[in-house]
Amino acid sequence: MFCLSILKDTVAIHPSNFGAPPEDALIAEINKKYANRVLHEVGLCICVFDIAEAGEGKVRYGDGFLWYKVVFRLVVFRPFTSEVIVAKVKSSDEDGIRLTVGFFDDLYIPVAYLPQPSAFDPNERAHFWLPDSALTTTTELLDTPVAERMYIDQGEVIRVRVESDEFCDDEPGPPKVTEGVQMKHEPKRPPYVVCCSIAEQGLGPVAWWNGSTQVEEGDEEMEQG
Amino acid sequence: MEVVNPRSALLSNYEVLSLLRELESDNLLRTKAALRIKKEEETANGAGSSLPLAGNPHLEASENLRTIEVEAIGYLSADYLPITAQSEDGITKLVRGLAPYNLTKAEKLQIVNLAPTLPVELYVIVEELEERFGDRIDEILEHVQASLTSGPKESTLTNGINGQTSYTAVTEASVVVQEDDTWDEDADAIYDEEIFDDTGAGNGVEGDLEMDED
Lengths: 225, 214
Known about the structure:
The structure holds two protein chains of two kinds.
Chain A: E1 2-13, H1 22-34, E2 38-39, E3 43-54, E4 58-59, E5 66-77, E6 84-93, E7 96-100, E8 107-110, E9 118-121, E10 126-129, H2 138-142, E11 150-152, E12 157-167, E13 192-197, E14 204-205, H3 206-210, H4 214-224
Parallel strand pairs in A: 8-13
Antiparallel strand pairs in A: 1-5, 2-3, 3-5, 4-5, 6-7, 6-12, 7-8, 9-10, 10-11, 12-13, 12-14
Chain B: E1 2-11, H1 13-46, H2 63-76, H3 88-98, H4 105-114, H5 119-125, H6 129-133, H7 137-147, H8 160-185, H9 187-197, H10 202-213
Helix pairs in contact in B: 1-2, 2-8, 3-7, 8-9
C-alpha cells in the first residue's frame, strides 16, 4: 500500500523558525506542503520519511527566508496493481461500490468487477451476490428470496484486489462571475482514483470467507424480511 | 519540485504505523514544551521582567498532517488488520522464514501486511499457490501464525475511528494530568500569581468565588 518516493524541492524557512534545528524546520515545512496531497503519478503523500540531502540555506534578495535545496523521501499511499488490500464499504449505488481506508476514500469497485451473478437492490441500497445461481438478469435476481442473497452492506470490511489507478489533473477554469450570478458547482473529478475488484474466490467481505459470521447475517435479513 | 523516483522502496503497514506513532508522540512532546515555555514567559512577565524567553520556536504541525496522521493511524490500527498482534521481531522472523519459498517481493509484503491465517486468504495473495507450493501451504500459514502474538496488546489497540478519538482523548488527558502535577508542587503561590496576571474580567469573579468558599 505504501511506498517511499524520492523528491527534490526548494524549501523556504521563515525567519521565525531560525531558532529550530534546520532539519526539524525543513521537515515541518515539507510536511506542510505535501502531507495529505495527491501528487500526479506519484500517489497520496502521507508524511516525510527522512531528508536525504540538503544544501546550504541561502537568502535571496527581497525576503528574509532561507532557501534550501532539499532531496527527501516521502511516505506515499499508492497500492500497486494486483495488490490485495482491506477496506470498508463507504457507499453503494447502481454503478458500483465506493470504499474507504480512512485517510483515502476514492477506491471504487465498478459493477463489472463484482462477483457474478450480482445485482443492486435499490431498497437496501446495496449490492448482493447470489452464489451458485444460473440467473443472469437483474429482474430475475431481484425476484429471489432475500435470505439467499449475500449482501455487501455499508460499513462492511471487504478484501479487494487493486486493478488499476488513475490520476486526473483538472486545470482550474477561467474565473467565474460571483456577484449576482449563482455559482454552479461542477462535479469535480477526484485527483486520484483506485479501481478495485472482488470478482474472485477469496475476495469480498471478509466475513464471507471466515465462515463464522454468515449465520448472523442471515438472521438479520430474516428479521428485516 | 521534481520527482526523482516515484517508488524507490515499498513500506509495510507496520513500518508506516510506527513512523506515524512516533510523529504523533513527537508532536505531543513539542506541544507540551511550547506550552511550558509559554507559561514560563507569562509568569516571568508577571514578575515584572518584560524580557521574552529566547527558546526554540514551536514548529506547529500543519492541519493536513494532523488529519492524515490521525486517519491513517485509525485505519492501520483497526481490529480487522493484524497490526495490533504484530511486532518488529515477529515480522523479521516471518520474513526470514519465508525466504526459502521463492515468493516474490510483493507477495511477501502482502503476507506481512495481511498476515493470512486461512488458506483462502493466501490463495488471493499468492498466484498459482497450488502449483507452486502444493502441500507446503500449511507451512507458510504456520510461519504467519507464529509471527503473531496471541492476544492483541491492549495499550495500542484502537478500534477504528471511535477508538482513535478515545486514544487522542487519553493523550490529552495525560497532558492535563501533568499540568495538575506542576500545580500541586507549590500550589498556592503560583495560583495567586496567576490570578493577578489575569487581565480578563473573570479575574475578580474567580477571586470572589474563592472568598465565598472560605
